[in-house]
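Practice problem: predict the structure.
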Amino acid sequence: MGDEYLASGFSDVDARGDATAYGQCLSLLDSLPYFRRTKERSYDLLRLSAGMTVLEVGCGIGDDALRMAERVAPGGTVVGVDASARMIAAARARLAAHPQVALHRADARRLPFRDASFARCRVDRTLQHIQHPGQVLQEMARTLKPGGLLLAYDNDWGTFSLSGSDDECTRIMETLWGDSFANRWIGRYLRRYFREAGLAEVAAVPSVCVLDDFALADRVYNLRQTAERAVKGGRVTPARAARWLADLEEQSRAGAFLCTLTAFTVVGTKPGRGTAS
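Answer:
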């Protein structure tokens, strides 16, 4: 995925030198069993059915939008929005044969849709990259029909853990990666934002992503780049960073490496009477 630093780069993909790295990251995550399970569970929790109109905020390259469109067929529509023109272009190219998915470039904090336009709204790992995430959820709630469901899935980077033998160095790396997100603790605050947006019957379900292979964890979490940044920032010496990485690689070969992260799926209902279909 090149030299792109995924923790901070997703906040403005169009300003990055290598935008393909972000589409590749989304495809990689979509291929992993943990993320496929959480995605499928989110569709189930939304109780999607034929004929529904669905909004997907932060649609990326369109994988989730397409799968939800299949669940609301026949007669249903999924509208995907993303702040990145490059992401929208990639999604349009991939979904050209699927007119039931409409794609728009838009700021999630100012959605270009009328009140009560959608039966369901979903946002997945987007709020961690956006300043003022409460505004996004308020906008999504505004466009949701009374009786409709809103679902958000996002990470709590305060729970990010690596099995490094050098405790202090490991804490430095975990913190440096987590602090690179716009909202490192968004997962634990989702319930609060849902209630502030006026949603009712709010439920939060935690899940834990576990990776036991160093090479895969490096692709997902930029472990080597984080070590390089720690060295450049004077947080650790080059020799210490090298020993830390070598230790993790050795653990991986020995079957002892572990990398974990807790995320939360939160669902709420917009009060009021309505068909939400």
